[in-house]
Input
Amino acid sequence: MPTVPASASAERASRTPKAVRRSAALSRVAGFLALLVAFPSCTNVNRAIYFDGSRMEEAAGRILAEVRGAPTPAPEAAEGAPAAGGVDLRAVQLETPTILELRGRMKKRFPILVPLYDQSDIGEGKSGLVVLLRTEGLDANQRAGLEDLVAKENEDRMALYRAVVAANAYTDWQVTRIQTAFARKLRELARPGWRYQSPDGHWREQMEGVWPAKKPVPGATAQ
Output
């Protein structure tokens, strides 16, 4: 077996620590770059951390008031909200083109849904989606049309919830929390007689609502 010269062994040993240090340094750089890809903005990371359920309910109330023509709730004070670069991390962003488009579609569809709520054909589910409750007396075409209408409304609602996640850099699992916030506001905005599903899964009839039982006649003078 050939003998390795002592000078060669010493040279190899002197190089080994540098190689190890270089490999470790490259690993740290790779890890840092991966973090930059996963989290392009510190503000975005902080927004995901500072998901505020009460702020989300307030945002849901503003969107639904616009869609349904109900009184718009006044925004709550933002005292003590954490900030990064002057940005309120708990403020919910609602003005993206996608969110505005979905709000517009839901607003146009709402008058079509109103008589269906009135007749208890549909109701508000606990997950922030419309639920088909009754189809008795409908022929096949009418039932198909009703099912299609409900499906389109729920498709836009889920798209809205996901758009809010994207606009605020929330994590995907927070879609469920957004649905819960919207479901609560949908129950509050239900007109008297409309049906909704409570968080425990039971169906109830709205006794009081934000929307008045009778809308004032335009141009009428109060007596």
Q: What stands out?
A: The chain has two domains: 18-50, 52-71+92-205. The CA atoms of residues 96 and 128 lie 21 Å apart. The mean pLDDT is 77.
